[in-house]
Amino acid sequence: MSEHDHGRRAFLKGAAAGAGAVAGLVPDALAQTQAPHNDTPTTGAHGGHGAEHGAFLNDDDAATVAAIAERIMPGAPGKPGATDAGVLNYIDLALAGAYADLQDFYRRGLAALDAFCGKAHNARFTALDAARQDAVITALEQGKATEFTWPSAQAFFNTVRRHTMEGMFADPVYGGNKDFAGWRLVGFPGAHPVFTPADMQSKDAFAGGALIGLQAQASARRT
């Protein structure tokens, strides 16, 4: 993993943990309308990149979204990234549901991205190596990528980055954070219903048991 990757991961991990709302990254609209899913989601079709999709994204667009998310939050041995956490599944399900108003935004943004990559590198984003993908993402972030009208390059990057964060660190019930990968990464203890005053005041990592997600709590309440 490059120093660039280390820096990006450190920034995003710090943003998630420091915000104090790792489990609450999903907007209220999505939390209210997204159908429950198991903590290890299986919805969707299998694409060539080994991730889940099929609710909205086609194979080509899914591969591009997965590649962008992985460069935003790259994995490393023992350190899960966007692919490990099922970020693609989260974004795909969200675009088929509560984020349906962003479907055209994604379609146009992905088309503009491939047009820019074709002009700058004579290849689609998914065909570029990691260094050139990072260069493209930097151009998006800085608003220097041509071929974008609506959405703008920066708006597209910021939206995909925000959704990558949500898919990494929100409760697995929404389709991402597979096997609690994001929570384990930042040391978040899970959606435990009760923390004692001592737990709340302690500076040590919570050691009160296994990670628990909203799906497990819902199942327990039904029994």
In short:
The chain has 223 residues and is an all-alpha fold. The chain has helices at residues 3-18, 28-33, 59-72, 87-96, 103-121, 130-141, 153-169, 181-186, 197-201, 214-222, and strands at residues 45-46, 52-53. The protein has 10 helices and 2 strands.
Written account of the structure:
By secondary structure, this protein is an all-alpha fold. It has one domain. Helices cover 51% and strands 2% of the residues. The chain is built from 10 helices and 2 strands. The protein has helices at 3-18, 28-33, 59-72, 87-96, 103-121, 130-141, 153-169, 181-186, 197-201, 214-222; strands at 45-46, 52-53. A two-stranded antiparallel sheet has the order 1-2. A hairpin with a 5-residue loop joins strand 1 (45-46) and strand 2. Mean pLDDT is 79; it is low at 35-50.
Explain the layout of strands and helices:
Layout: H1 3-18, H2 28-33, E1 45-46, E2 52-53, H3 59-72, H4 87-96, H5 103-121, H6 130-141, H7 153-169, H8 181-186, H9 197-201, H10 214-222
Antiparallel strand pairs: 1-2
Helix pairs in contact: 4-7, 6-7
Number of strands: 2
Percent strand equals under 5%
Termini separation: 45 Å
Q: Which bin fits the share of residues in helices?
A: 40-55%
